[in-house]
From TrEMBL:
Residue ranges constituting the Histidine kinase/HSP90-like ATPase domain according to the UniProt record: 21-117
GO MF term (any one): ATP binding
SUPFAM superfamilies in the record: ATPase domain of HSP90 chaperone/DNA topoisomerase II/histidine kinase
Superkingdom in the source lineage: Bacteria
Gene3D superfamilies xref list: Histidine kinase-like ATPase, C-terminal domain (3.30.565.10)
Transmembrane regions listed in the UniProt entry: none
Pfam families given in the database record: HATPase_c_2
InterPro entries, sorted: Anti-sigma-factor_SerPK (IPR050267), HATPase_C_sf (IPR036890), HATPase_dom (IPR003594)
Designated name of the protein: ATP-binding protein
Record has Kinase as a keyword: yes
Amino acid sequence: MATDADRPVARFLAPATVRLPYRPESVAAARRFVTAKFREWSLDDLMDDATVIVSELATNAVKTGCLTRMLVGVRRPSDRVVRILVGDGSRSMPVMVETGPGHTSGRGLAMVHKLTDGRWGVTPLPLGKVIHADLTASAPASR
Protein backbone atom coordinates (compact mmCIF):
# COMPACT_ATOMS: atom_id res chain seq x y z
CA MET A 1 0.00 0.00 0.00
CA ALA A 2 1.35 3.45 -0.94
CA THR A 3 1.93 5.93 1.83
CA ASP A 4 2.09 9.73 1.70
CA ALA A 5 5.88 9.44 1.61
CA ASP A 6 5.62 7.42 -1.64
CA ARG A 7 3.58 10.06 -3.48
CA PRO A 8 5.07 13.07 -5.27
CA VAL A 9 5.11 16.13 -3.02
CA ALA A 10 3.32 18.30 -5.62
CA ARG A 11 0.10 16.36 -5.00
CA PHE A 12 -0.10 17.91 -1.54
CA LEU A 13 0.01 21.48 -2.87
CA ALA A 14 -3.55 22.61 -3.29
CA PRO A 15 -4.36 24.37 -6.55
CA ALA A 16 -5.79 27.84 -6.18
CA THR A 17 -8.24 29.84 -8.27
CA VAL A 18 -9.65 33.32 -7.93
CA ARG A 19 -12.53 34.94 -9.82
CA LEU A 20 -11.90 38.55 -10.82
CA PRO A 21 -14.02 41.25 -12.45
CA TYR A 22 -13.20 42.56 -15.93
CA ARG A 23 -11.53 45.75 -14.78
CA PRO A 24 -8.00 47.05 -15.28
CA GLU A 25 -7.31 46.84 -11.54
CA SER A 26 -7.88 43.07 -11.74
CA VAL A 27 -4.48 42.72 -13.42
CA ALA A 28 -2.80 43.92 -10.21
CA ALA A 29 -5.05 41.60 -8.18
CA ALA A 30 -3.99 38.68 -10.41
CA ARG A 31 -0.32 39.54 -9.81
CA ARG A 32 -0.86 39.66 -6.03
CA PHE A 33 -2.67 36.32 -6.13
CA VAL A 34 0.09 34.59 -8.12
CA THR A 35 2.83 36.18 -6.00
CA ALA A 36 1.20 34.92 -2.81
CA LYS A 37 0.88 31.38 -4.17
CA PHE A 38 4.46 31.31 -5.46
CA ARG A 39 5.71 32.50 -2.04
CA GLU A 40 3.64 29.81 -0.33
CA TRP A 41 5.24 27.20 -2.59
CA SER A 42 8.76 28.68 -2.12
CA LEU A 43 9.09 29.51 -5.82
CA ASP A 44 10.70 32.91 -5.38
CA ASP A 45 13.07 32.25 -8.31
CA LEU A 46 10.08 32.05 -10.69
CA MET A 47 8.07 34.92 -9.24
CA ASP A 48 9.22 37.64 -11.65
CA ASP A 49 8.44 35.52 -14.71
CA ALA A 50 5.12 34.41 -13.21
CA THR A 51 3.99 37.98 -12.53
CA VAL A 52 4.86 39.06 -16.09
CA ILE A 53 2.96 36.07 -17.51
CA VAL A 54 -0.17 36.56 -15.41
CA SER A 55 -0.08 40.31 -16.10
CA GLU A 56 -0.04 39.74 -19.85
CA LEU A 57 -2.73 37.06 -19.82
CA ALA A 58 -5.02 38.98 -17.45
CA THR A 59 -4.56 42.18 -19.48
CA ASN A 60 -5.60 40.30 -22.60
CA ALA A 61 -8.64 38.92 -20.78
CA VAL A 62 -9.66 42.41 -19.63
CA LYS A 63 -9.29 43.71 -23.20
CA THR A 64 -11.71 41.11 -24.59
CA GLY A 65 -14.57 43.24 -23.27
CA CYS A 66 -16.29 40.08 -22.10
CA LEU A 67 -18.22 40.59 -18.90
CA THR A 68 -19.06 37.03 -17.88
CA ARG A 69 -16.03 35.90 -15.88
CA MET A 70 -12.28 35.91 -15.56
CA LEU A 71 -10.57 33.18 -13.58
CA VAL A 72 -6.92 33.10 -12.57
CA GLY A 73 -5.45 29.86 -11.31
CA VAL A 74 -2.17 28.29 -10.25
CA ARG A 75 -1.51 24.54 -10.32
CA ARG A 76 1.37 22.11 -9.74
CA PRO A 77 0.80 19.28 -12.25
CA SER A 78 4.18 17.85 -11.20
CA ASP A 79 7.11 18.63 -8.92
CA ARG A 80 8.89 20.51 -11.70
CA VAL A 81 5.96 22.24 -13.43
CA VAL A 82 3.99 25.25 -12.27
CA ARG A 83 0.98 26.17 -14.41
CA ILE A 84 -0.61 29.61 -14.53
CA LEU A 85 -4.11 29.71 -15.99
CA VAL A 86 -6.28 32.62 -17.06
CA GLY A 87 -9.79 31.93 -18.25
CA ASP A 88 -12.23 34.36 -19.79
CA GLY A 89 -15.64 34.26 -21.41
CA SER A 90 -14.46 35.20 -24.90
CA ARG A 91 -14.13 32.60 -27.64
CA SER A 92 -11.62 34.80 -29.50
CA MET A 93 -8.34 32.92 -29.62
CA PRO A 94 -5.09 34.72 -28.77
CA VAL A 95 -2.69 35.34 -31.62
CA MET A 96 1.01 36.00 -31.29
CA VAL A 97 1.86 38.88 -33.63
CA GLU A 98 5.14 40.31 -34.86
CA THR A 99 5.72 43.86 -33.70
CA GLY A 100 8.29 46.41 -34.64
CA PRO A 101 10.45 48.44 -32.26
CA GLY A 102 8.06 51.39 -32.41
CA HIS A 103 4.95 49.48 -31.33
CA THR A 104 3.75 50.05 -27.79
CA SER A 105 1.60 46.94 -27.55
CA GLY A 106 1.25 43.46 -29.02
CA ARG A 107 4.28 41.88 -27.36
CA GLY A 108 2.45 40.07 -24.54
CA LEU A 109 2.10 36.59 -26.00
CA ALA A 110 5.63 36.76 -27.41
CA MET A 111 6.88 37.42 -23.85
CA VAL A 112 4.77 34.54 -22.50
CA HIS A 113 6.19 32.32 -25.25
CA LYS A 114 9.77 33.31 -24.38
CA LEU A 115 9.37 33.01 -20.59
CA THR A 116 7.78 29.55 -20.87
CA ASP A 117 10.08 28.26 -23.62
CA GLY A 118 6.97 27.83 -25.76
CA ARG A 119 5.06 25.84 -23.13
CA TRP A 120 1.73 27.64 -23.27
CA GLY A 121 -1.55 26.97 -24.99
CA VAL A 122 -5.26 27.56 -25.19
CA THR A 123 -8.18 25.30 -24.35
CA PRO A 124 -11.42 26.44 -26.03
CA LEU A 125 -14.53 26.03 -23.89
CA PRO A 126 -18.22 26.28 -24.81
CA LEU A 127 -18.38 29.71 -23.15
CA GLY A 128 -14.83 31.03 -23.49
CA LYS A 129 -11.30 29.72 -23.18
CA VAL A 130 -8.48 29.03 -20.74
CA ILE A 131 -4.91 29.99 -21.53
CA HIS A 132 -2.22 28.10 -19.64
CA ALA A 133 1.47 28.86 -19.30
CA ASP A 134 3.95 26.47 -17.72
CA LEU A 135 7.13 27.37 -15.87
CA THR A 136 9.78 24.89 -14.78
CA ALA A 137 10.62 24.78 -11.11
CA SER A 138 14.27 24.19 -10.27
CA ALA A 139 13.53 22.27 -7.08
CA PRO A 140 10.86 19.75 -6.20
CA ALA A 141 7.71 21.12 -4.62
CA SER A 142 7.81 21.69 -0.89
CA ARG A 143 4.96 21.14 1.49
